[in-house]
Design goal:
By secondary structure, the chain is mostly helical. The protein has 13 helices and no strands. The longest helix has 39 residues.
């Protein structure tokens, strides 16, 4: 009985230690976000006082409406959401179709093509940036959203890998039964595989949204008209146009960050399910 009691104590203190470490790490990661919110509610006199004030007094809530009117924030928000929407549609459709062909259909050279798709992950964006720019400039797409949207309809190596691994966990018997009933490959893909792959598809959609929402380099290269700027470019312009108004900049940054936090909060269960169920087979 003494041994059992000692084991329970060890388990308790081990669990307590792990939770304390996780709490400390979580607080460390939350500090920059908390400081951004704190700065967004400060007056100019409180910004650079020493020692720093974590909780401003009084809270200057008027920084938020002023920040959103200093720049055309909602125009930038609309532009960003437009790009995110089409990127999600293109990525989910293209990657799921390719992943279906690489996981559910037997054909010669399938593994070689899959390895070629994975090899694209080895090339950083900085390597292909100049060739892509020259191609899009030749096509006359510079200054439009096409360079930011159209590539999403041609697949992504990482998302193809993610969906392929998930599709391989779906029993092949479902497809065989559909073949017997006279279903075509596209109907099997559309009515059987996709409905069963909602967690993985939601994960791909979430990753795509986060990438398009926070993309700075792509819009910086291809967008040259201010009325077409995204939020990331708009916040950078805000800094140059209002260099001393740090509280306004932090207020605008907070408004741009909150939707990501809310989205992840409501989709975290599906997101985690999609990640954990991927790669169980293959």
């Amino acid at each position: 009985m003494q041994i059992i009691g000692d084991n329970k104590k060890k388990i308790f203190f081990k669990s307590l230690f792990i939770h304390l470490v996780l709490i400390l790490v979580g607080i460390t990661f939350m500090l920059p976000f908390f400081w951004m919110i704190s700065t967004s509610l400060k007056s100019n006199e409180q910004l650079f006082v020493m020692p720093p004030k974590w909780i401003p007094t009084p809270l200057v809530w008027s920084n938020y409406p002023k920040a959103l009117t200093f720049i055309p924030f909602f125009t930038y928000l609309r532009n960003t959401l437009q790009i995110c929407f089409f990127c999600i549609i293109g990525t989910v459709l293209s990657c799921s179709i390719v992943a279906y062909g690489l996981s559910r259909i037997q054909w010669p050279g399938r593994e070689v093509v899959f390895l070629l798709a994975l090899s694209t992950l080895m090339l950083p964006y900085q390597v292909t940036m100049i060739p892509l720019f020259l191609i899009f400039k030749t096509l006359g797409w510079v200054g439009t959203y096409k360079p930011l949207i159209i590539p999403a309809f041609f697949g992504n190596g990482f998302y193809i890998f993610l969906l392929r691994q998930f599709f391989m966990t779906i029993p092949q018997e479902l497809s065989d039964a559909a073949y017997i009933d006279g279903c075509s490959e596209f109907r099997i893909y559309w009515q059987i595989i996709l409905p069963l792959s909602k967690p993985a598809l939601a994960t791909v959609a979430l990753f795509t949204f986060l990438g398009a929402w926070g993309d700075f380099l792509g819009p910086l290269i291809y967008i040259n008209e201010q009325n077409k700027f995204t939020l990331s470019l708009g916040l950078q312009l805000f800094r140059f146009a209002h260099d001393v108004e740090w509280s306004y900049l932090m207020a605008a940054s907070t408004v741009a960050t909150v939707p990501i936090i809310i989205l992840f909060f409501f989709t975290q269960r599906t997101f985690i399910q999609g990640i954990t169920l991927t790669g169980l087979k293959g």
